[in-house]
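Let's do one together. I've listed all components of the complex below, 918 residues spread over two lines.
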Amino acid sequence: MQAIKLTDALIEERKNSITVKGSVEAKQKQSLTCDAESVAGCVSQRACVYCGARVVLNPVTDAIHLVHGPIGCSSYTWDIRGSLSSAADLYRNSFCTDLKEHDIIFGGEKKLAFAIDELVRKYDSRLVFVYSTCVVGVIGDDLEAVCKAAAEKHNIEVIPVQSSGFIGNKSAGYRAACDSLLRLIEPNSGDVKDIVKIPDSINYLGDFNLAGEVWIIKSYLEQIGVKVNVAFTGDSHCDALKKAPAAALNIVQCAGSMRYLAQKMEEIYDIPCLNISFIGLQDTADSLRKIADWFSNEAMLKRAEKLIEKKTAEVKPLLRNYRKKLEGKKAAIFVGGGFKAVSLIKQFKEIGIDVVMVGTQTGSQEEYETINDLADEGTVILDDANPSELEKFMTEKGADLLVGGVKERPLAYKLGMAFIDHNHDRKHPLSGFVGAVNFAKEVYSTVCSPVWKYAKD
Amino acid sequence: MLDSTPKEIIERKGGMINPAKTCQPIGAMYAALGIHKCLPHSHGSQGCCSYHRMHLTRHFRDPVMASTSSFTEGASVFGGVANLKTAIKNVFSIYNPDVMAVHTTCLSETIGDDIPKIIKTSEVPEGKLVIHTNTPSYQGSHITGFSNMTKSMVSYLCEVTKEVKEERVNLIPGFINPSDMREIKRLTKLMGIDFIMFPDTSGVLDTPMTGEFIMYPAGGTKIEDIREAGNSKVTLALGSYASSDAANTLERKCKVPAFTMKTPIGIKATDELIMMLRQKFTQEVPYELEEERGQLVDIMTDNHFQFHGKKVAVFGDPDIVVAMTEFLLDLGMLPVHVLTGTPGMTIGVSVGNFEAEIKAMLDEAGVKGRVKAAGDLFELHQWIKNEPVDLLIGNTYGKYIARAEDLPFVRVGFPVLDRSVHSYFPIVGYKGAMRLLEMITNALLERQDRDASDEDFELVM
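Okay, and this is what the predicted structure of the assembly comes out as:
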C-alpha cells in the first residue's frame, strides 16, 4: 500500500481531521477530530444549519414551507431534492418573506405575519413551517411569538424552525428540524400514556423519498406484515405525522438526521428504536430480519426470509455480472453523513470495489470508528475535506471513482475519474434490492464509460 | 400536478412566491471568477458559499472554487474580524491565488463588519491583492451583486498611467455565459479592434478536459489588464443593470468615456454594438460579419411567418430580458408578459428602469403587454393563466409553469440547471441570434408536430 505523508499541502489546523488507517500517525492519535468548526479561509464543502433543517422538513408535502429571510436562502433550496409525493405538492413551491433593507432595520416580524396570513388564505394547508435564516437570528425577530399568534388566528399549526445558519453546521439544522417535528406531533390534549399503539407498526425515520425510495421500503415492509405508520419525512403529511406516537417501533435509516428524533420519541412516547439500513443487498436483508426479529413474530420472520430469498435471487445474477466488470477498481467516498459512508463501504465490497478514501461533511465520532473498523489498511479517512485534499488523496490512492454530491462531480470529472451521485441530483432509487442493482449499474456505466479513454490521454 | 397558482390575481405584500431572482453574493462570486487566478471569498456562514458554488456548478457543470469565513455564533456576536483575518492568511498560504475577492453576505453586512479596515490591517503577502465588495442579500439581486463586484474591480485596480489613451475598447459584458463573452470578443477581433474585457469567465467555467484539476484555469482577465483599462479610449457597458456602474466609475476615476448599451442579443442590439465599435474606432465592418448578418436575416425571412403574432412570455435577468424583448418584437412576436425578479432602479445601480424601457418598446410596436420588475413567477403564472401565450422563454424555473400550462419552453438565462451544454453556445451576436431562432422555431414546430392529428401530420413543415 502506498504511503501517504499527511504533511504535504495540508493546513496545520486540518491535520487532526485526517488519518490513514493502520499508519503510525493514526496509532499515535487519540481519535479523528470531527463535529468541529471549519477553518476560516478553507474551501469547505459543508453547508449550513438552515440547509440541514430544510432538507429534513421539505419532504412534508402538504406544508407551507416559508423561509423567513432574504431571497437567496429560498432560491437555492427551491425544490432542492427529488423528494416525491403521492398526493399534495405544495412543498415544491418556494415561499419567502424576501427581507429587504427596511425589514433588517425595523425588524421583519410584521412582514412575516403578513406573509403567513396571505399564504394561509391562498392555500388550503393546515401546517406552516417558518424557517429562520442567518439574518433573522441576528436582528432577533421573535419567531415564536409571530408563529403562535398566527396559529391562533388561523387555527392551524404554525411551527418555527430555529435554523439560523451560523449556529453550527448541518447537524444543528437536523436537530432544529427534529425539534419542530416533535412540536408538530405533540398531542394537544390527553395523556401520552393513553395513546393506543398500533400492533406491528413502525415509523420509518430518515428517508426523504428521493426517487420514491420510501415507497420501495414500504412495499417490502408491508409484504412481511409490518404496517408503516408514517415515514419521516418522505411523502409525509401533517395528519400522518401527528399520528406518529401510535407506532410500536421506530426504525432509523439516516441516523445523522434522525437519531435525535428517535431518542426523543423514545423518551416521550416510549417508542423503542432500531438502527437499520436499506442501502445495499446485505444491509437490506439484515434490516428486514432485524425488524421481524424485534417483533418476535414467527410468521413475519418467515415472510421476511421468503422475500429476501426471492429478491436476492432476482438481483444476485445481475450484481454478479457487474462485479465481473468492476472487480479490483478503487473508490473514494465523500458524502454528507457518516451513516451513508458506512453503508457505501459495504455496498462497494458487494460489487468487488476497494474503498481507498472515506470522508464526510458531518460524521460523528462513533460513525468514524465504524468506518475505521470497516476500512482496509491504508484507507484515508477524513472529516470536512476541501477540494484540494480530495484531489490529493484520490490521486495518490489511484481512485477510479468518487461518490459524492453536486460540487464534487465536476472535480472528479476534471481528474478523469468516474463519479456517482449519492445525494440530490440522482433520478433513480438507491435503496433496497432494486437500489443495489441501480447502484451497481450506475457505477458500471460511469467507471466503464469509453469517455475516459479520451479524458485521460 | 404542480399547479397551485390560482387564476384570480391577488394583491400581495408579504414576500415572494417562486422567485425570479436570487441574492447578490452569487453574482459577486461569478464576477470574481472572471479574474485570472482569483479566489472568491464569501464573508459569512458556510451555507451561502456552499449554495452559490452548488448553483454555479449546476449551471456550468465545471468546478467552482470559493472560500468562506465560516461564521459561527461567536463571529456573529463579536464580529467577523478574526475570521476574515484568519481566512486571508489561510487562503494565501494554502491556495495561493494572485487576488482574493471578498464579498459580504446578509449576516456580515448586518453585524457591520468594516471590510476595508480589516483588509488594511491584515497581512497580505507581497505582490498579492485583496479586493472587496458589499453584497447584502436583502438588497438588489444576483445581478446587482455582479455589478457591485465589477465596480469594485474598477475602484481597486484601474489606473491612469499613460498621458494618451490607447486605441482600445473596454468591454464589460455583464452576467452572461462564458460562450457569450467569447462571442463578443470574437466580434471585436473581427472588427480589428484591440480590447480588454472584464470580468471574463471564458476559460474559467468552460475549461477543456486535461485529466487534471486546475485550481486557477488559464482564463479570466489578468490583473494587469484590468489596471490597464484605465488607459483605454472608451468603455462599453453591455447591459445597464450589470455593467453600467463599473463603466461610470471608470469614467469618473480614469476619464475613460462610458457608453451603456444593450446586451447584444438579437439583430438590433448586435448592429448597435458593431456600429458603436465602427464609429469609435473608424473601422470598416469586415465581409465576414456582413455575411453572418446576412445569414441571420435570411433565417429570419425563412421563418418569419411562424413567429408572426405569436404571444410570448419572457422572464429572467433584466439586461437579457430587455434585449430579448427587442428581438422578439423584431421577429413579429408579441411579448405580452415581461418580468424580472431584479428590482428596477436598484440601490447600487445608477441606471436602468426596466418597466419604463420595456413599456416604451411595446408601445412603439403597438403591443399591449404586462411588465414588471421585482416580480415573481407566481405572478407571471397568474398573468399567463389570464392571458395565455404560445411560448415561454426564461431560466429553468419556468419549467413548472410550462408544464402546468402545457407551453413550449425555451431555456435562456441563469440558471439553467436541467439541460446540458447550453453554456458552451452563445446567444449574443448574429450567431447567437441564429441559435435563439433555432431554439424558438424548434420549440414551436415540435409543439405543432405533437398536436397534429394523424391526418394532418406531414413530413415537411
